[in-house]
Amino acid sequence: MGFRLVVIVMVLILLASIPSLFAHHSSAAYIDYTRTITITGVITRIEWNNPHVRFYITARDRDGNIFSWTVGLAAPNGLAKIGFDKRLVNLSDPVTMELWGPKDGKKIANGSFPAEGQTLTLMDSRKFDVSDKWLQLK
Length: 138
Hints:
This protein has 138 residues and is an alpha+beta fold. Helix content is 19%, strand content 36%.
């Protein structure tokens, strides 16, 4: 009887954990992971939360039109591992970012996908890899 109860409890625990497997969704539906874009602008809002940090950046396009971008970065603990934390940026700080761009023209970009080239450059020229690779660039 004891072994059967243990098996039943373990099966119930396993079944209860299945929904969490689907909690983290892919951004592949709206991000083009075949090309990078450059955004230069000022930070207007910062969300320093799990599962990913988000910056909201106001930038101008080539024609001078102003746009607001939503940018996804790595997780807070991943950024902390490379020495980047929320004390390094403030609202209205100018930044330049190399990111994966949108598929459909919306002003959404992503830097958290682990590949080369997703960087954040601060106004003092320090450059950080904002992907989930957790490596600071030289």
